[in-house]
Amino acid sequence: MPTLAAEQLRQISTRLFQAAGVPDTIAARVSDSLVEANLAGHDSHGVLRVPQYLEYLREGEIDPHAEIELLAETPTTALLDAHWAFGQLAAAEGMRLAIDKALENNLGMVAVRRSAHIGRLGEYSLMAADEGLVGAVLCNSSMLAAPYGGMARVLSTNPMSVAVPAGDRSVFLLDFATTVRAEGKVRLAKEKGEHVPEGWILDKDGQPTTEPEDLYDDGMLLPLGEYKGYALSLLVDILGGVLTGHGATSSEVYSHGNGVAMMAIDIEPFCSRERFEHEVENLLDRMKAVPPAPGFSEVLVPGEPEARSKAVRLREGILVPEKVWQAILDEGERLGVRIEGSLDA
Questions:
Q1: Dihedral angle at the C-alpha atoms of 307, 107, 140, 190, nearest 10 degrees?
Q2: Separation in Å, CA 163 to CA 166, 176, 260, 296
Q3: What DSSP line would sit under 164-198, residue for residue?
Q4: Is 284 exposed, middle or buried (0-12, 13-18, 19+ CB in 10 A)?
């Protein structure tokens, strides 16, 4: 697999989007988001998505010139229609608005409908934590998952993220799909030519399978934690899909993309931020002090793997699977963009 520096990947991605007609500032913003996902260790939401987004542009599922519209607003809430803008723009604008409302009125909640794929949810919840707030993001998407006990696609991966400022430990970051794994993890295994573990997916006949290709042949992802993950997925579909007006995944209203509900919560009305962050930091320290179980070297806290991954990948570069790299090269040839080699070439 080729290894590329983060800045190399940013430049390649930006040039490809620019060649596809995306305005320069938007091309750079989306590329930053994708590469940051790679740095955090979430390759499923990184440059793997560049060829996919370029296809969406060709099919009209992303409008690079869309203007995000404010449909309704109160001092603590807002409803946005993204008009199929890049999700990275829509979600960032929504969270920025939620943060501003929370800073002024202690609480901000923003709903976004008709957004293209927003990428890694943790990026947006972290925006709030960086301001000393609690940030939360709930997002629905296209049908890929079965309910617990069922064998038909009626739900999505329906991810959620919550970020909390944590003093010297920086941040607590929860960021996961409500399926056993995100669809992008299966897509990444497919591109690497690898099998997935048992318990991730069913094939179109409802039989367990370890072949990633089976998911894309009418297969189904399974809910995280059986009934509990199924219930969480429904909650995300209700808040991210129904409440926003984007439509629940299985509804006639839904067409594609993401419906997103996001919140920013001020800590100060409940307790001082200093006390809150100190107690969260102490709580995480207690987790770190627990002796590791057999087969583990330490107890990790949410957000720690991402921070460690970023430090390593900034230093050593980002591995790009051969099939992903070839797809990027193919897009470069299609768009007339010259793409040069990698760090290990």
A1: -10
A2: 9, 12, 16, 25
A3: EE-GGG-EEEEEE-SBSS-HHHHHHHHHHT-PPPT
A4: buried
**How many residues would you count in the chain?**
345
Q: What is the pLDDT of residues 84-95, one digit of tens each?
A: 999 999 999 999
How far, in Å, are 8, 167, 181, 325, 345 from residue 341 at the CA level?
9, 41, 32, 10, 6
Q: pTM here?
A: 0.94
Sign (positive or negative) of CA dihedral 307, 305, 326, 121: negative
Token readout for 18 is 């620019």
Q: What is the mean pLDDT of the chain?
A: 96
Question: What's residue 1's pLDDT?
Answer: 82
Place of tokens 């296809």: 55
Torsion of CA 327, 3, 10, 262, to 10 degrees: 90
Q: Is the pLDDT at 108 greater than 60, yes or no?
A: yes
d(CA 167, CA 205): 49
Closest by CA to 82, choosing from 97, 101, 99, 100, is 97
* Closest C-alpha to 239, from 264, 265, 259: 259
Q: Are 107 and 101 in contact (CB under 8 A)?
A: yes
Question: Which helix H or strand E contains 136, and what residues bound it?
Answer: strand 134-140
pLDDT at 341 (0 to 100) = 65
pLDDT above 80 for 247: yes
Terminal Cα distance for the chain, rounded: 10
Average pLDDT for 48-71: 98
Quickly tell me which residue has 């890049």 as its tokens: 86
Q: At what angle do helices 322-335 and 183-192 cross, to 10 degrees?
A: 90
Structure tokens at 93: 């604008």
